[in-house]
Amino acid sequence: MVASTPRWGAAWWIAFLVCKPVLLLVCRRGWRGLDGIPRHGGAVLAVNHVSEVDPLLVAEAVLAAGRTPAFLAKSSLFGSGVVGRWFRAAGHVEVDRDHGSGGFDAALEALRGGALVVVHPEGSITKDSGGRLMGLKTGAVRLALQSGVPLIPVAQQGAQEILPAYSRRPRLLGRPLVTIDVGRPVELGDLRKRGSGPEAVRVGTLRLTHTLTTMLDDLAGDRRLV
Prior knowledge:
Layout: H1 10-26, E1 28-32, E2 43-47, H2 54-64, E3 69-74, H3 82-89, E4 93-95, H4 104-112, E5 116-119, H5 139-147, E6 151-157, E7 177-182, H6 189-192, H7 198-225
Transmembrane segments: 12-31
Protein name: 1-acyl-sn-glycerol-3-phosphate acyltransferase
GO molecular function: 1-acylglycerol-3-phosphate O-acyltransferase activity
């Protein structure tokens, strides 16, 4: 059962009051499996990435489940000004791509502290013209293995109909359906027994790839029936 009284900080209440009315106007929602988002404790949400606007839509769904998401976000968003202050206050995780750790240590600390960390394992918005999954990087699996938290796959489609990939021109008419499907945790128990070495990470990433690909194929089939 989805939590009815989420505990948000001031930063998230501000974002909700500003963004929610706009999101209600520009799209319809098809949310599935929100009960699969843990009510407490750390978890990695591994989400495919199709548009610059999809983090807003994923955040909306996570908030509806009673949790506040911590996104991995590039360092430039944490600079001075209102945007930077909001990102820090909202608890997002800074990724400094100029350093080798790339925010991994900060994300690991957040997970061990009970945060719900959202990772786009493709590393960027998909460059596939059909919105299909690109090859995954290993960070999401490494974080889950080292922290011991669940790795939860999240498949989503539809955000690219509001703002196409790599476009600056939103399409604000038509209210497309945005579907977000939260899957069951990827099985990592056997891999944790091996530690978090390269082979465990490789196998875990293959499992995540297979799971997300299957979920996206199912979403595409269902959307054709709508």
